[in-house]
């Protein structure tokens, strides 16, 4: 089973570690601050993080008060908020900064998607009427295992660094879903991931709710991720059919795979799809023909099959 695969468990551990790295310090502070009386506008927050592991790290970093004479310490640069209003201002500034990063990220993502589309996807050969072994899934499993990601370094890079466009390319090549529909779904997830926490933050602050309620933002993110995984899993059922698997009984499995390790799925599908058409996508955005025949670009999809 995939859930018992050691590589799968390592991926879960690493993803959780990265998530905590970005959200842990704020979560620790919010949980501690939420224990105080924060409903009064002029209430003062106690330095609750001093007793937390994060607070101990800050004290160790500073080396005690007034280190280096007039040199500002870590806590001077990142001042601990003393009132609810200061905390609200700091969190709002952080969220606005995230929105700015979102705009930059979307511009980069669209640029990469367009470059990949023009250099690779639009130049792919027509999808064969019948997929030949060992690429046909009617009687066989995928030729490459889900966790054989590192067998081919270039495909590993595409799956990890160009995740959205590689999935979109897989679906477009097999006529499972239009290219820009898939890219747009990932961009929509980015936008929702920035806007929903911001809206929830405003609701909590305006309603005067305890700050622990901000933690519910994680649930919203998980729900949106699950929605995207469900959408991609449905498209993968069509991709499986294009590869010869007409059973259509792997929706639950594909949902879990897309939710937990979509990078590995994109790499596995990429190697299967490229093998079925006799091509290889190399760095950077180069479509290599492995059959010796001329590669004629196929028209892009406008609608779902």
Largest sheet: 2 strands, antiparallel
Number of strands: 2
Strand content: under 5%
The overall pLDDT, averaged over residues, is: 74
What's the layout of helices and strands?
Layout: H1 6-33, H2 53-62, H3 74-77, H4 84-119, H5 153-161, H6 163-173, H7 179-207, H8 217-242, H9 251-277, E1 279-282, E2 286-289
Antiparallel strand pairs: 1-2
Descriptive overview:
The chain is mainly alpha-helical. It has a domain at 88-291. Helices cover 59% and strands 3% of the residues. The chain contains 9 helices and 2 strands; from the N terminus they run αααααααααββ. It has a two-stranded antiparallel ribbon with strand order 1-2. A hairpin with a 3-residue loop joins strand 1 (279-282) and strand 2. Helix 5 packs across helix 9 and helix 7 (179-207) packs antiparallel against helix 8. Residues 1-78 have low confidence and may be disordered.
Brief summary:
It contains 9 helices and 2 strands; from the N terminus they run αααααααααββ.
Give structural attributes.
two-stranded antiparallel sheet; 59% helix; 9 helices; 3% strand; 305 residues; disordered N terminus; elongated; single chain; mainly alpha
